[in-house]
TrEMBL record:
Residue ranges occupied by any Factor of DNA methylation 1-5/IDN2 domain in the UniProt entry: 689-820
Sections of the chain in a coiled coil: 476-674
Organism whose genome encodes this protein: Ziziphus jujuba var. spinosa
Signal peptide annotation: none
Designated name of the protein: Factor of DNA methylation 4
Cross-referenced InterPro entries: FDM1-5/IDN2 (IPR045177), FDM1-5/IDN2_XH (IPR005379), XS_domain (IPR005380), XS_domain_sf (IPR038588), Znf-XS_domain (IPR005381)
Sequence ranges assigned to domain Zinc finger-XS in this UniProt record: 214-256
Residues covered by the XS domain: 301-412
Region called Disordered, residue ranges: 269-293
GO biological process: gene silencing by siRNA-directed DNA methylation
Keywords assigned: Coiled coil, RNA-mediated gene silencing
Length: 822
């Protein structure tokens, strides 16, 4: 023994030299060499084991000198991963006494070849890991990271067999003695105390609204459970766990009783799992419950015939013409329906001898059918007419026997097996549940993929909508800008016309004042001539003649002025009427108007001068005026001829355009060509609209509010028919004439009409606006006939379409149709 101790000391010194990273002196290297030589002999293997122990002791002593008051934290490590702390009785040991403990742990771990309970962990140890020596002891202080790992774990496997067996027996015996010291009253007290603490709220069970936690499990292993799962957990620890102590089982039994009594279990149809019954668990019917659970697990693993089928045996038969005859399947089915088993079909089995006395009962393929099938079997078992009774009893009498078809029936070589193999297949309940679960998961996956696709499409549509909105806003801004520019141009033209008219009026006023002055002067001269009447009759006649000529000239001037005013007003009206159609002729018309005014003015001046004295200057001036007048008249004739030619050409062009528009409308209406027929099948932007037709949608919506669902369609059609007759009635004219800002007559709808007011009060604004829209269209497009007419319409922009838009649309569709044909 002393020899072995000496060998252990030498091995410890050698290991110490090895732990000093190669050794710094020759003596350490020599001792390490001797230790390696001793390792070749079997008896010296124990020396290496002891060397490891003394090496650990040596480090512990060094650690105790540097930290004499430090406590040690011992942890078992599996594959260098820390596990649960050891009991507090071991944690408080001084480092210098730990080498004995280290030796015992190494010996126990190296010897273990089966599942046992580790005295440090109180948990099952994996025998494969224990046999390979992967368990090691780490010793560390609170303020130091010093760790000692067991080396030469493979050598531990061979050197301590006898010592390990002794320690294992001692450990297990000590633990069993310790557990037997706990009396039954102590366990009941522990259970009662934990139950009262759960009731008082000392231990918190509820983690959230729907999840719970076990208050007696370690913090690291605490997980959230649903209430049923927590109940199963408590039942499993209190009944099944082999590694849990009796106190832990008592605590979990108290938790199970608290859940059953004080927490609301919505569904009590599923009892907690009961796999094994222990003698410490109280209750009279535990064995029966455990047997029932084993039957349930056995049923889940049994092979049934799918779709669910039952077997009826010992059916009463009679002999008729050397053939057995029995009850029909429909009669048997009705009897089973009355008992509440809900079979789908009942097939009596016939052979060459006739009715075999057996029948196959088919149930639904779902779980309800399985429930009916099991109820069918249990009802016969309760009457002692099940499958076992059928094969046991010899004198069956006229009783019916029944059971659910299983594997042995399916594989039998009689008429029952042939029918079952032909109509069904063998599957377990677990397989069917797995199939349903897989189908549900596949359905959820497909729905998830579909949802993702739909979300992607929605995002693409949203982006396209945003792009379209941006482009539409740009178009609206451009339209507003063009409209603003157009209005500005019209305003400038109106201001120029007004300035020109005011200028002509001012000139006219000046000429009138000048003539008035001349008249006054002539009157004064008349007075002078009258005074000189006695002196010179000829002078009187001359003055009277001048007065007459002046009066005629004034009359002519007034007539010329009236003509000029009428002409100006006529030109203004013509200009307002033709402004939108012949904008390109405005300059020519302005020139023409100016020439006509100049000609009239010159003619008036010429007429005035004809009635005045014929002196040379006046004659010259009259000649010049006549020449200018001839030139202006010639220029006016040229402009008039050009204007007339343009007007004729425009009228001819307008007639041609109207004919083309009518022809395009006829083509759209009759769908003569195949391209236009296909055109109507898609969403179109240019098409035919019946101007003056009533929109039926507002009438339908109003009828829904006012009438019942059965009367909606009838009342809608009746109301539309009444108002279509009112719109066609020429005697009803709900229009009135007003004067606009330019003093022009304008015809608008009289909203105070009795029929319209009654319609608005009874059916609302939407129906009223629909009738107003129809009235406006009829008054605009066909005021004389008062019936709808066809016209080109831009459905996208909600306006009348131009001929150009219609032609471009038809050409575009024709190209698409032609491309498809080729």
């Amino acid at each position: 023994m002393l020899y072995l101790v000496a060998m252990g000391l030498i091995g410890g010194i050698a290991s110490g030299g090895e732990g000093a990273r190669g050794g710094r002196d020759a003596f350490a290297q020599v001792v390490a060499l001797l230790g390696s030589l001793m390792a070749t002999m079997e008896w010296w293997l124990l020396g290496f084991q002891l060397s490891n122990v003394f090496y650990d002791m040596r480090l512990n002593l060094m650690f105790s000198r540097s930290m004499p008051d430090a406590k040690l934290d011992l942890r078992i490590k599996v594959n260098n991963k820390p596990s649960v702390k050891p009991p507090s009785s071991i944690v408080g040991l001084k480092p210098r006494f730990l080498f004995f403990f280290s030796f015992f742990c190494r010996a126990v771990v190296s010897q273990t070849h089966r599942q046992l309970t580790d005295p440090l962990l109180e948990e099952p140890v994996n025998p494969s890991l224990a046999a390979c020596g992967f368990y090691s002891l780490s010793v560390s202080g609170f303020n130091s990271k010093t760790t000692v790992y067991s080396r030469n774990a493979s050598i531990n496997k061979f050197c301590c067999k006898s010592l390990a067996g002794m320690i294992i027996r001692y450990t297990m015996t000590h633990r069993s003695i310790k557990e037997t010291k706990i009396s039954k009253s102590d366990l009941e007290d522990c259970e009662y105390r934990c139950y009262e603490e759960l009731k008082n709220g000392t231990f918190k069970v509820k983690a959230s609204n729907s999840t719970y936690r076990c208050p007696f499990c370690p913090e690291k292993s605490k997980t959230n459970y649903f209430l049923k799962e927590l109940l199963r957990h408590a039942a499993r620890i209190s009944r099944e766990s082999k590694s849990s102590s009796l106190k832990e089982k008592a605590r979990h039994f108290a938790l199970e009783r608290y859940i059953k009594r004080h927490l609301d279990l919505k569904d009590r149809s599923e009892p907690p799992p009961k796999i094994e019954c222990h003698e410490h668990v109280r209750g009279r019917d535990r064995d029966r419950d455990c047997e029932h659970d084993r039957d349930r697990e056995h049923d889940r693993d049994q092979l049934f015939v799918v779709p669910w089928m039952g077997i009826l045996a010992n059916i009463k038969t009679t002999l008729d013409d050397d053939r057995h005859v029995g009850e029909s399947g429909s009669k048997l089915r009705n009897e089973l329906m009355r008992e509440g088993f809900n079979p789908v079909k009942v097939h009596p089995l016939w052979s060459w001898k006739g009715h075999s006395g057996f029948a196959i009962v088919e149930f639904n393929k779902d779980w309800a059918g399985f429930k009916n099938a099991m109820s069918f079997e249990k009802s016969f078992e309760v009457k002692h007419c099940g499958k076992r009774d059928y094969y046991v009893e010899k004198n069956r009498g006229e009783k019916l026997f029944g059971w659910v078809a299983r594997e042995d029936d399916y594989k039998s070589m009689d008429i029952i097996g042939d029918h079952l193999r032909k109509k069904g297949d063998l599957k377990t309940v677990s397989d069917l549940e797995a199939d349903d679960k897989r189908k549900n998961e596949k359905l959820v996956s497909n729905l998830t993929d579909t949802l993702g696709t739909k979300e992607q499409c929605l995002k693409e549509i949203a982006s396209k909508f945003i792009e379209t909105s941006v482009s539409l806003n740009k178009l609206v801004e451009q339209k507003d800008e063009m409209l603003k520019h157009y209005n500005e141009e019209i305003r400038k033209m109106q201001e120029e016309g007004r300035d020109h008219f005011e200028k002509i009026l001012l000139q006219h006023n000046e000429a009138t004042l000048h003539l008035e002055d001349q008249r006054k002067e002539l009157e004064q001269q008349e007075k002078l001539l009258r005074q000189r009447e006695a002196q010179n009759d000829s002078e009187i006649r001359r003055l009277s003649r001048e007065k007459e000529m002046n009066a005629r000239a004034t009359l002519e001037q007034k007539k010329a002025d009236e003509k000029m005013l009428k002409l100006a007003e006529e030109q203004k009206r013509q200009k307002e009427k033709l402004r939108k159609k012949i904008i390109r002729l405005e300059k020519q018309l302005d020139t023409k108007q100016a020439l006509e005014l100049e000609v009239e003015r010159m003619r008036g001046a010429l007429q005035v001068m004809k009635h005045m004295d014929e002196d040379m200057e006046i004659k010259k001036k009259m000649d010049e005026i006549e020449e200018n007048l001839k030139e202006k008249i010639e220029e006016l004739d040229g402009v008039e001829a050009l204007n007339q030619a343009l007007i004729v050409k425009e009228r001819k062009t307008n007639d041609e355009l109207q004919e083309a528009r009518k022809e395009l409308i006829n083509k759209f209406n009759t769908h003569a060509s195949q391209g236009l027929e296909e055109l109507q099948t898609r969403n179109i932007t240019i098409g035919i609209k019946r101007m003056g037709d009533l929109d039926i949608k507002p009438f339908h919506a109003a009828s829904k509010i006012k009438y019942t669902s059965e009367e909606v369609e009838e009342k809608t059609l009746e109301l539309c028919s009444i108002w279509e007759d009112n719109l066609r009635d020429p005697s009803w004219h709900p229009f009135k004439v007003i004067m606009d800002k330019d003093c022009n007559a304008k015809e608008i709808i009289n909203e105070e009409d009795e029929k319209l007011k009654h319609l608005k009060d009874e059916f609302g604004d939407e129906v009223f606006n629909a009738v107003l829209t129809s009235l406006k269209e009829l008054n605009e497009y066909n005021p004389s006939g008062r019936y709808p007419i066809l016209d080109l319409w831009n459905f996208k922009e909600g306006r009348k379409a131009s001929l150009k838009e219609g032609i471009l649309f038809v050409l575009k569709q024709w190209k698409v149709y032609k491309r498809k044909r080729h």
